[in-house]
Amino acid sequence: MSTNSATIRIYVPKDACAIACGADEVVAAIEAAALKRRQPIEIVRTGSRGMLWLEPLVEVATTEGRIGYGPVEAEDVEALFEAGFLTGAAHGLRIGKPEEHPFMAKQTRLTFARCGIIDPASYADYRAHGGYRGLERALQLGPVEIIEEVKKSGLRGRGGAGFPTAIKWKTVADAKADRKYIVCNADEGDSGTFADRMIMEGDPFELIEGMTIAGIAVGATKGFVYTRSEYPHAIAAMQKAIEVARAHGMLGVNIAGSQYSFDMEVRMGAGAYVCGEETALLDSLEGKRGTVRAKPPLPAHKGLFQKPTVINNVLSLTAVPHILADGGEFYANFGMGRSRGTMPIQIAGNVKFGGLFETAFGITLGELVNDIGGGTASGKPVKAAQVGGPLGAYVPTWQFDLPFDYEAFAAKDALIGHGGIVVFDENADMAKMARFAMEFCSVESCGKCTPCRIGSTRGVELMDRIIAGQRVEANLATLTDLCQTMKLGSLCALGGFTPYPVLSALNHFPEEFGAPPRRLEAAE
Ligand SMILES: Cc1cc2nc3c(=O)[nH]c(=O)nc-3n(C[C@H](O)[C@H](O)[C@H](O)COP(=O)(O)O)c2cc1C
Ligand code: SF4
Asked: Quick one: which of 185, 414, 450, 474 is 20 to 30 A from 258 by CA?
C-alpha cells in the first residue's frame, strides 16, 4: 500500500482479555510494520468493547469513523498493512464499524458507553465523552436531592442481592458519626463474570465519579475499592486514574472547587470467594481473615472500622453518574417491573459469542444465549445455563423464556446475581455439576456456621455416593433434607444459596442422578 505522511490513530485494547489473546504482541507488530513503511501512527490503548471472541480487536480511525479488525494476531499484521487497513480497506478480519456490529447495535449502553472507545488513563478523553456531568449536577443538588434522584432511578444493587441503593445511602446519610466510608465491592468472585474488571480497566474515572457522588450524598470523605490480586490490570488502571483525578482536583480536598472533600484508594484481597460477602470483605479490608459478621449491626450502621459504611458493587456505583447526569426518571424508563435501568450481562462458558452485553432488564435468557450468544461454541445443543455465579440455579432450556428480572428469576428459585451466564452443552454431567457446587461451598466456606462448614462436606460425600449408585433414593432424600437445613440455617448466602444449583440440577435433570423422573415443569 502507499504510505501516508499524516499520523494515523490506531486503537488496541489493553484489557486483560485482549492482552491474554496477544494484544501486546499485536501492538509491537503494528509499530514494526509502520516503522518499516515510515508511516507515522499513534497507538491508543483502550478498554475492550466486550466482543471477546474478536479480541484483540484493532480499530483504525478513518474518514468514515473507526473501522475494526479482529481477532488480530501478530502474524496477521503485515497482511493487514498490505491490504490497506490503515484506510479501513477490505480484509478477511474487517468487521466494519464496531458500533454497527449486531452484538453492539442491539445493546443499550449506559455504564459501558465509553468502554473500548476512550483512553482509560485520559482525563480529557473522559470529559470529552460526557464524563463528570453527573458529579457537576450532584454538586448543584446536594446530598438530599442526590439520594432522591437515585431513589427515582429505582437502582438496585448489582452485586447480587438487588437491594435498593437509595435506601442504603439514606441509612448511612442519616447515621451520626465522625467518619463514614464508601467501599466499592470489586471482588467479582462469581464464575463467568468480568464486568467489574472490564469497567475498571476501560473506564476507571466512571467508578471514581460514582464513588465521589456517593461520598457527597452520605457525608463520607474516604473510599476504598476492594478487588482481588487476580486483577493486576484493573488495579493499575484504577491507581493511574485516581492519580490523574487528584491532579485535576477531582479527588482530595474541595473537589472541583466545592465544599466537599473525598479521596480514595485501591486495596487488594487474596481472592477468597467469601471476601465478596460484604461483612467478610470489611474484615479483610481491616487486615483480618475474611469471615462473615453476624447482622445486625448492618454495615450501614457499623461497617468499616465500626463506622457507617456504604458498600456497593462496581456496577451499582458506575450507574450513578448517568443517573445524576440524565436524571433518575431517564434511567427508570429502562427495564421491567421492579428491575429498572440496564444490566451489563456477561455471556460466558460454552458459547459462540461470549462477551459483555448491556441491555435493559426484561430480555429473555433464551435471547441472550441463543440469539446474541449464538448457542454453544461446541456446536452441540444447549443443555442449561447457570446464571448468577456459583450460587445460581442451572436453568434448563425449557425455562429460557425467563426474562431478566429479579422477581421473575426468584419465582423460579433462580438468581440474576451479578449478571453472569455460563452456558453448558448436552455433554454437561449435571450430577457432577451438583457435586461441584457442594465442593465449591466446602472449599470456600469461611467456617463460621455449622450448616455451611459441615453441611457442604457432608453434601459432597452424599453426592459421591449418589454418583456411585449407592442407595440412591435414600441418599437423595438426605441430600434434599441437608439442602433445606443449609438454606434455612446458614449465616450468609454462601451456605444458604448453595442448595439452589444443587437442587436445580436434581429437579431438572433427575435421571442423571439415577432418580425417577420428576421434571414437572417440562410439561409446562
Ligand atoms: C459469598 C458471597 C460472595 C459475594 N461476592 C460478591 C462480589 O464479588 N461482588 C459484589 O459486589 N457482591 C458480592 N456479594 C454481595 C455482597 O455481600 C453485597 O450484597 C454487595 O456488595 C452490596 O452491593 P450492591 O448493593 O451494590 O449490590 C457476595 C455475597 C456473598 C454471600
Ligand atoms: S454460610 Fe458459610 S461462608 Fe457464610 S458465614 Fe456460614 S460458614 Fe461462613
From this structure: 185
Task: Name the residue with the closest Cα to ligand 1, atom 22.
Answer: 312
Q: Is 453 in the pocket of ligand 2 (CB under 6 A)?
A: yes
| Top mutation candidate among 289, 440, 443, 453 for ligand 2, by most atoms within 8 Å of CB | 453
User: Which ligand 2 atom is the nearest neighbour of the CA of 444?
Assistant: 3
| 295-320: b (≥16 Cβ within 10 Å) or e | eeebbbbbbbeebbbbbbbbbbbbbb
Q: Ligand 2 mean position to 448 CA, how many Å?
A: 5
Taking only the tens place, the pLDDT of each residue in 183-230 is 999 999 999 999 999 999 999 999 999 999 999 999 999 999 999 999
C-alpha cell at 235: 488495579
* Confidence (pLDDT) at 433: 95
Query: How far, in Å, CA of 240 to CA of 222, rounded?
Result: 18
Query: What type of residue is 314?
Result: V
Angle made by CA atoms 398, 404, 407, in degrees to the nearest 5: 95
Calpha distance 454→465 (Å, rounded): 17
| Ligand 1, residues at Cβ distance < 6 Å | 157-161, 163, 185, 187-189, 273-274, 276-278, 311-313, 316, 492-494
Ligand nearest the Cα atom of residue 491:
2
* SS3 per residue for 322-385: HHHHHCHHHHHCCEECCEECEEEEEEEECCCCCEEEEEECCCEHHHHHHHHCCCCCCCCCEEEE
| Chain segment 300-318, per-residue pLDDT in tens | 999 999 999 999 999 999 9
Q: Name the grid cell of 239.
A: 491507581
Is ligand 2 within 6 A of the CB of residue 225?
A: no
Q: For 397-453, what is each residue's pLDDT tens digit?
A: 999 999 999 999 999 999 999 999 999 999 999 999 999 999 999 999 999 999 999
DSSP code at position 63: T
Measured CA to CA, the distance from residue 347 to residue 345 in angstroms comes to 6
Question: Cell numbers 438426605 label which residue?
Answer: 478
pTM value > 0.90: yes
Q: pLDDT tens digits for 124-179?
A: 999 999 999 999 999 999 999 999 999 999 999 999 999 999 999 999 999 999 99
Out of 283, 291, 313, mutate this one to test ligand 1's pocket (max ligand atoms within 8 Å of CB): namely 313
Give yes or no for residue 104 CB within 6 A of ligand 2: no
Nearest CA to ligand 1 atom 18: 278
Substitution site in 185, 193, 314, 441 for ligand 1 pocket (most atoms within 8 Å of beta carbon): 185
